[in-house]
Structure prediction request, 167 residues.
Amino acid sequence: MMAKDEGLNWVLMSRSELETQQLGERLSPFLIPGCVVELNGELGVGKSVFARGVVWGMGVEDPYITSPTFTLMNTYTEGRIPVYHFDFYRLSSPDELGLTGTDEYLDGAGVALVEWAERGGDWIPADRLVVELLHQEENPDLRHIELRAEGPRSREILHGFRQRYPD
Ligand SMILES: Nc1ncnc2c1ncn2[C@@H]1O[C@H](COP(=O)(O)OP(=O)(O)OP(=O)(O)O)[C@@H](O)[C@H]1O
Ligand SMILES: [Mg+2]
Prediction:
């Protein structure tokens, strides 16, 4: 029997950029203001593709979505709820988030999607939905994707998502 406080996780395979994008798009309706989605995996694995799907899923019309590698954060406010897309790749220290005021978006009126979250240190809340993307050797378009809930709020989100899309 699954313990009540056990973390929920879900492992999937994506066979194309489109499938990864669609996964983000399908998750989108389950996301609520203040929630944080951490996107993990090496360069070029599909973190921004997944983020684009989430933004589309919010109903943002024809969004031009780029990786916020140089800007730290891109915001998309025309959808159901705002999306703050972070990329901490070039963050020199977690303190930079406090100094730039971007920290408040991690617990704001919208959803925060965070690439390279580990560089954000303690600014990343404990309750978050973690998406791990992994390249697969046998095929350049294949990705192993794990969705993992850390904390009760994320668990509820992932639970709802799984129920909607049973394997
Ligand atoms: N199954 C797949 N899912 C996602 N992307 C895929 C897949 N197969 C191939 N790709 C390709 O992998 C690349 C993913 O790029 P993306 O910018 O999303 O990576 P990233 O993880 O955000 O990298 P970075 O850390 O540099 O920001 C795209 O060129 C995309 O076409
Ligand atoms: Mg990216």
